[in-house]
Amino acid sequence: MRKWSKDVKTESTLPPKGTFTKRAGEVARIMTRNEVSPGEIGSAIKMVQLFINRAGRNLNPERKQQLERAKRILQDKKRQK
Asked: Which backbone phi and psi does 61 adopt, to 5 degrees?
């Protein structure tokens, strides 16, 4: 089966290894750094969602909850701008 997500192209660079294993606040902080998400907060949100989608059923519920929380933090920051 061919994965559609392998063809996704973004303006973003790759986050440092292990980013998505951290707590929500730390993930959000890392993802907002300019060298990780040069396309602003919107690209950071997309990268977190793409990671969640790629992990699929292999992502344990606690990790998914932390990543969803990180996504909400990023969305709140985007609204404040």
From this structure: -60, -35
Q: What is the pLDDT of residues 25-71, one digit of tens each?
A: 999 999 999 888 877 899 899 999 999 999 989 999 999 999 999 99
Burial 27-61 (b: 16+ CB within 10 A, else e): bbbbbbeeebbeeebebbbbbbeebbeeeeeebee
How far apart (Å, rounded) are the C-alpha atoms in residues 60 and 65? 9
For residue 69, give both structure tokens. 């929380």
Q: Does residue 73 contact residue 31 with C-beta atoms inside 8 Å?
A: no
Say whether pTM exceeds 0.85.
Answer: no
